[in-house]
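Researcher: Please translate sequence to structure tokens.
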Amino acid sequence: MLDVAEWISVGDWRAGRSRDELLAQPAKDFASSVLDRFWKKVAKGGNNLIDADDETRHQLRIAAKKLRYAAEFFKPLYNGKSEDKRHRRFITAMSGLQDQLGCLNDLATAPDTLSALALSDVEGAQDLFSGDDKAKLLHDAAEAHDIFVDTKRFWR
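Model: Translation complete:
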């Protein structure tokens, strides 16, 4: 909630535009511009997903969450039959990407979490973050990103 309040108060969506201009803009136009900005961050942020470091993938995960929240929030503005269908497909693609990015984040944070809980030496603990798992997850995440990028945006 604090992030939303901050975004409303000082977010980049206000950049270069007066209060009156923002108030006069149709809600659907505003929503489309916000969704486009978030979509571009996720689309560009995942272009080199396999070679990206853990922190870069984590930032992509955060950007994907913001896009998903915005897509759900602005959904009532796009209530035509075709928009409903495209929204469902879009959310499905977003969900797939978020799931893969979440698994990669879990894999990246597992060693520190196990260490903090003094479980690093427990039998099988190392199996939770093997290199083989990471390679497969990276491939799956890149594929999920491709599906996301190819999915028609419901607001356009």
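Researcher: Any highlights?
Model: Residues 81-116 form the longest helix (36 residues).
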